[in-house]
Amino acid sequence: MAEEVILLNFWPSMFGMRTMIALKEKEVKYEHREEDLINNKSALLLDMNPIYKKIPVLIHNGKPICESVIQVEYIDQIWSDKNPLLPTDPYQRAQALFWADFIEKKLCVCGRRVWRTKGEELKAANKEFIELLKILQTELGDKSYFGGDKFGFVDIVLIGFYCWFPAYEKFGNFSMESECSVLMTWGKRCMQRDSVSKSLPDPERVIGYVLYLKKLFGLE
Amino acid sequence: MAEEVILLNFWPSMFGMRTMIALKEKEVKYEHREEDLINNKSALLLDMNPIYKKIPVLIHNGKPICESVIQVEYIDQIWSDKNPLLPTDPYQRAQALFWADFIEKKLCVCGRRVWRTKGEELKAANKEFIELLKILQTELGDKSYFGGDKFGFVDIVLIGFYCWFPAYEKFGNFSMESECSVLMTWGKRCMQRDSVSKSLPDPERVIGYVLYLKKLFGLE
Known about the structure:
Two copies of one chain form a homodimer.
Chain A: E1 5-9, H1 14-25, E2 31-34, H2 43-48, E3 57-60, E4 63-66, H3 68-78, H4 90-116, H5 119-140, H6 153-159, H7 165-172, H8 176-179, H9 181-191, H10 194-197, H11 203-216
Helix pairs in contact in A: 1-3, 1-6, 4-5, 4-6, 7-11
C-alpha cells in the first residue's frame, strides 16, 4: 500500500518543526498543509484533533497522531529502518524522554512568558529562561548532540528554539552567545543537517511574527 | 545479578501510585522508601532527582529514573515478559501516550485548582475538572479498560485519581457518581486488581491530607 502522510502545520511552530525534522531524517515523503490558525482553522484540523484543535497533526493513512513529541516517537517506530532517533537501551531511552519532557514542561512554558510579559514579570521570565537553558547546556556538556555522537530525539525536541533565539534576545534583552555559547555551537552544528535547516524558518521572520502577536494581544 | 529496585515515594502521590502499580503488575520486588517531603527531603532524593527534587524516583541498580509516566514505560520495557502495559502497535501506542499526556497536562493541573482555590476560581475549576473527566469517560466508552479488555498504561496513569475523588467531591462540592458514573464503575473494576487496591491509600486519609495542606497554605 502506498503510504499517505500529511502534516497539518503552521510555519512558526517549534512543535511542527520537530515533526518535519523527524520525517526528513527518515526520508519520508509527505504533504505539508499550512493552517491559518488565527483566522480560519480547517475542518480537517478540527476533525483530526478535536481535543486540542491545534497543529501539528500528523495524518498517516487517514489516522491522526497528535502532540509533536508523540509524533516523533511514532515516526521513529514506523520508519525504524533509517536513522534511529530514540535510544533502544531502556535507561538511555528514559533519559531522552526525561529531557524532552523537561523542554516541554519548563522551557516551552517559560519561553512564552519571555515575549508575553512586561516589567518585573518579564525580568523573572528572562532569568528563569536562561537558567533552564543553562541546565540543558550542562546536560549537553562536551557531547556533540544530547544523545552523544549522533543527532537524535532530544536534539529534535529542542532545536526549534534555535530560530526563535533572536526573538527571545530581542524581547528579553539578553545575549544568547554570552549566556549560552555551548548551546549556540550545538545549534549551529544541528543546522548543518538538511533535515534541520530545511525545517526552521528565517529568525527574522519569527521576530516579525512575534511583533505581530504582541500587537494582536495588545502587548506593544 | 540480583536486581536492586528502590522507590522513593510519598503515600498521597498519584504519581507514585502509578509506579507502584506498574511494579506490582510485573511482580517486581522493590524497597519502598517513604519521603518526608514537607519537612525533610532525603539526601538520596536530592541526589537522584536534582532537577525537580520530587518523588517518585525509581532507582534501578543505582540509576535513577524520574517522572512517573516515564517510569511506567521503563518498567514495561525492562520487565517485558509479564503483563504488557503499553500496546506494541505504533498507532495504539501513540493513542495511549496521547491520553497519558492529556491526564498529565490537563487533569492533574486542573485537579490541583479544585482544592487550592475558592469562590469564582473554584467554580471554574470544578466545571473544567468535570468536563475533562467527561472527555476521558467518552474515550473509555463501553470498553472495560482504556486499552480495551486488558488493564494497561492509561488505566495506570489515571487510577490514582480514584482515591482522590472523595476529596475532590468534598472540596469541589459535586458528586462523581451523578457526573461520571461510567468512570466510577471503571474505577471499581480497577480496584479489583491487587496491584491497584494495594497501591491506593484510603480516600478518608487523602481527605485528611488535603485538609492539612489547606491549613498549611492558609486556605481554610
